Fold this protein.
Amino acid sequence: MPASSALRRSLAVIAALPLLTLAACGYGSQAEDDGGAKVAAGAKKIDGLDSVKIGYFGNLTHGTALVGMQKGFFQKALGATKAEPAIFNAGPSEIEALNSESIDIGWIGPSPAINGYTKAAGKNLRIIGGSASGGVKLVVNPDKIKSLKDVKGKKIATPQLGNTQDVAFLNWAADQGWKVDPQSGKGDVTVVRSDNKVTPDAYKSGSIDGAWVPEPTASKLVAEGGKVLLDEASLWPDKKFVITNIIVRQEFLKEHPKVVEALLKGSVETNKWINANPDAAKAAANKQLEEDSGKALPAEVLDPAWKSIQFTDDPLASTLNTEAEHAVKAGLLQKPNLKGIYDLAPLNKVLKAEGAPAVDDAGLGAK
């Protein structure tokens, strides 16, 4: 098949799939407010730009964005260029906002980044940095499922058809030798696509036997009596896999590279502070979550959820490529062309200035 025909077929398949969030837990909705720290006296705008619009989810796996806004790391790095937050519930709306120039930079998961990039034929976004790894678990009803083999024949929820956790669970099920139709979710195990907001209620009602879900949904299920049967991190080399990346509009990156570099500096500083002050960082993330959505997480959910997430500047590019391969293997899409999805030069410049090692794009960098 000619390459152009293969690409068209790939795009058609991906366009039919929803642009899905990796962790759309619904604690916030799309909104913009003043948020963040106040501009320091005497600070100057970068490239004369008044503001930069930053998208993220009201979700712990977007903890870098939450803490960066709450503690003022982003605003400090941006000087008098105002950090304007926009909070989303799901990947589709954030990708749409990026495409319509309603936001400039965003924190987002691998599935919407892959789908958004490929659907736009590689012309809308670049992944410019990492943010978080881990924070995904298989939580089950211990009365019904006592071992991994007991998952066969049961009803297991995933957030949405084709999203990152859905792909991961289908891939894991296939590795067990089980057959599942990827579209209907029917087979040796039944996959129930359930929004993370309603999954805890579905678990309590008994309509599902477990769920392969991100934090804090996994810890909410545990608080309802569920048991962690498997941490997805255990399936990956070094127990690391991408759950949140930083993306930017290609046009914005081209026109305002100094602003992008400044925000990346703020992100690196944020992750450094998070890892050095985990308890204070957890509290800061929860405070920003409450300010953004009006709802903080209780300690029994917050504490274990935060502990299971690793914050990193490394985008873990090889794992994004593997996740795409898993989606192809599951029959959810044809092999996408991800060449050029990364531009890590600005991040590596920041890391070099910090005396930190460079990060790798796994051969998927922009020319």
